[in-house]
Amino acid sequence: MRNISYGLLKHYDKVLDILDEIQNQTVGNSYATSYKLTLLNFEILVVAIVTQFLLGYLRPLFIELQSENCDLVESTRSISNISYIFSRDTRTFRGSI
User: Fold this and answer.
1) What distance in Å separates the CA atoms of residue 83 and residue 41, rounded to the nearest whole number?
2) What is the SS3 assignment for 11?
3) Which terminal Cβ of the chain has fewer Cβ within 10 Å, N or C?
4) CA-to-CA distance for 95 and 83, rounded, in angstroms?
């Protein structure tokens, strides 16, 4: 999912331009319109940004857990650190609302 949200955010303008081009064609324009409206939805952008942020923390852990010489004690520490960061950031976010 991280790659999807990263790719979407990195190429967001280009994706919208391509959807505009497809909209101008007679075949497939209803799908392009639907996708474009979805991408222009503010909530979709927020979800993509939050997903990218969260998975940015989790990716090193995923790599560590999949390695052949995975140290489960070190992985447990990483999980604890990530859990602390997420709970801290959640409290900070709730306090700012």
Assistant:
1) 30
2) coil
3) C
4) 18
